[in-house]
Design a protein that fits this description.
It is built from two helices and seven strands, in the order βαββββαββ. It has a seven-stranded mixed sheet, with helices on both faces. The chain is globular and about 40 Å long.
Amino acid sequence: MTQILGFEKPDVIVGIEARGFLIGPIMAQQLKAKFVPIRKKGKLPRECHSVKYEKEYGFDEFDIQVDALNKGDKVVIVDDLLATGGTLEAAKMLCDKSEAEVIAHCVIFELEFLNGREKLNDTPVISLVRYN
């Protein structure tokens, strides 16, 4: 996945719980970037930014530690799936709270027929497998 980024090197790879934890650290290591986890509410040990978001079947809440990202950090958000876009949109909102710049979203699978990219505005989305 790191070979297809095709743009400037990120400072940070942000992985979304839990499958983003499988992909993200490997990408971070290959790119010599920092890895930062986004976890479900209440799982991180220090002060956190939080965001509540709507999923396909209800609501959930994510946290990121307040000191995990720095202002101006270039961030790539990593997850396994882009469906309706709610999870990636929430992750971007958390990065925005730290004034980091999300330069791309990377996913393994994208369900194009659910139009999840629309929630991500102009941020590039890189998906390895797309289903129509």
